[in-house]
Write a structure and sequence with these properties.
3 helices, mainly alpha, 78% helix, single chain
Length: 110
């Protein structure tokens, strides 16, 4: 009903085609159903609650992703630290061997 009345009002410029004696027309009566204010408030509250729930879920998922990324980052840091320590130990061993060889050469020469 409401859509039909909206169509009539929206297309009033075509009224000459529908009414032969438009000059005798005195009133245009329209009626629209009124929605209870309480229904509108409840619908609005439901929409707000759904949006809040959706946002909370997104924040929760984002937080979980951040925890996973932080854990991965910590693993990478530990791996780099371990590799650095191994490299440093290898370098220290090599330097110690070179030092020994230098001392042996010096003792032979001197």
């Amino acid at each position: 009903m409401r859509d039909h009345l909206r169509f009539v009002i929206s297309n009033w410029y075509l009224s000459d085609l529908a009414f032969k004696k438009k000059g005798q027309l005195k009133y245009i009566v329209t009626a629209f159903a009124v929605t209870d204010k309480r229904e509108l408030e409840e619908e609005f509250e439901d929409q707000v609650q759904r949006r809040i729930s959706s946002l909370l879920e997104a924040v929760k998922d984002n937080g979980q992703n951040n925890v996973i990324k932080q854990s991965e980052l910590e693993n990478h840091i530990q791996s780099l630290s371990h590799n650095f320590n191994k490299s440093f130990e290898g370098l220290s061993t090599t330097l110690a061997k070179l030092n020994d060889k230098m001392e042996k050469l010096e003792s032979r020469v001197g």
